[in-house]
Amino acid sequence: MAFAMTPPTSDQSENKPLFPAQSAAAFFLVTGLFFLWGIPNNLNDVLIRQFMKSFEITRLQAGLVQSAFYTGYFLFSVPAAMVMRRYGYKFGLITGLVLYSIGTFMFLPAAGARSYSLFLLALFVIASGLGFLETGANPLIAQIGDPESAVRRLNFSQAFNPLGSIIGVLIGTFFIFSGIELKAADIARLKLAGTYDAYLQHETMRVIAPYLVLGVVVLVWALLILRTPFPAIAGARSSDSEEPQGSYRELLRYPHFLLAVVAQFCYVGAQVGTWSYFIQYVQDYTHLPEKAAGYFLTGTLAGFGVGRFASSHWMKVMRANMLMGMFAIINVGLVTIGILFPGWIGLWAIFLTSFFMSLMFPTIFALGIRDLGPNTKAGASLIVMAIIGGAVFTPLIGLAFQATKSMAVAMVVPLLCYIAVAGYAFWGSKLAPFADHGTALDEGTGI
């Protein structure tokens, strides 16, 4: 049954806690998961570059790192929801952490064998675990406290995800990159001396230590969750007689949910596509060296994190859908500047989009699962599956570049994605269920 919520005034927001005091331990442990899955996401950017060196592969072949990763997310989100419907959130989160750690430990035999396919399999296993974590953690955080503060609470937890992303980039930069970049003459000299294979093996082995340490940390986190009582959540576990597919069919009744899947697909495409080609945009139009362009990427990720915390605060006094719509329109303007004025002006415009995109994933997620009741886990799994947008829109940007030879013009792709997000924020998120034609959702809802 749908429930209406009154608009939170500033007084209401200040008086209501972000989460119940008795759920503090569970809340912070689950919030920590957002940080933990941010690390491998952006370590992939480092791996792509490292594998091009250590396996002597093309950029297209190295791009299979993202393909393996997104496939794991896509394939395991629905199974994760089915597991959690039957056994509960805690079991699903622990399962995800175990898969995550297994994937990191698989880096040891992959490096020892110098097998690129084994590395891809390890990344697939890691992402399979992350599919469990995202499918469980997002709706659990949304439901762990007062419904009126669900979006603000989810934005707060999601704010730790870009911190993990930044840590992932720094780990890769300091512990995986050796700083040795051989030129053709250097390679020829090492081959002549018979030491080139040893160099490639050394570069391959550099990926082991960060991932093994990460795997141990993840296992410790799983043990902490195992020993921590979790709050009772309505619909957290299904009865044995429940038909598993019934809840997925029920989701067709909710246009606000269906459009959330589309909006999330477009948003993730804009985010991943923008970050994937950000360094290329910087180098094309400012001619900065790669390392300096990488610092700009780190800076825009930091802006993303600041945006998460700032938007969580602003949602105390402004409806989440309206704030997201306003941010999407701002990004349409910023990307337009990046298209029309490539160079330093365009660079700073694209740089700022990370701040304004920051609230979109958790806000779309919370708006999409609103009022789904026992179908929440099923809905969450489909919204998580929409992350495949990153694998769809990123090559579309590449195709646009190939056709126009302009990285600026290729930014039209994320621009269209932000228009779709704005449409969902201002219109799609407020649609009532199909079976309840006479009752519109309260436009003053807090989420």
Secondary-structure topology with pairs:
Blueprint: H1 10-15, H2 24-54, H3 59-62, H4 64-87, H5 89-105, H6 107-113, H7 116-143, H8 150-158, H9 160-176, H10 184-193, H11 196-205, H12 208-226, H13 246-250, H14 255-276, H15 278-286, H16 290-314, H17 320-340, H18 344-357, H19 360-369, H20 376-385, H21 389-404, H22 407-410, H23 412-426
Helix pairs in contact: 2-7, 2-9, 2-11, 2-12, 4-5, 4-7, 4-20, 5-7, 5-12, 6-7, 7-8, 7-20, 8-16, 8-19, 9-16, 14-19, 14-20, 14-21, 14-23, 15-16, 15-18, 16-18, 17-18, 17-19, 17-23
User: What's the overall average pLDDT, rounded?
Assistant: 84
Question: In angstroms, what separates the terminal alpha carbons?
Answer: 16 Å
Number of domains: 2
Overall geometry comes to globular
CATH-derived architecture of the largest domain: Up-down Bundle
- CATH topology name of the largest domain, in short, is Growth Hormone, Chain: A
| Contiguous helical run count | 23
The largest sheet is: none
Rounded to the nearest angstrom, the radius of gyration is: 22 Å
- Number of DSSP E strands: 0
Q: Which range best describes the helical content: under 10%, 10-25%, 25-40%, 40-55%, 55-70% or over 70%?
A: over 70%
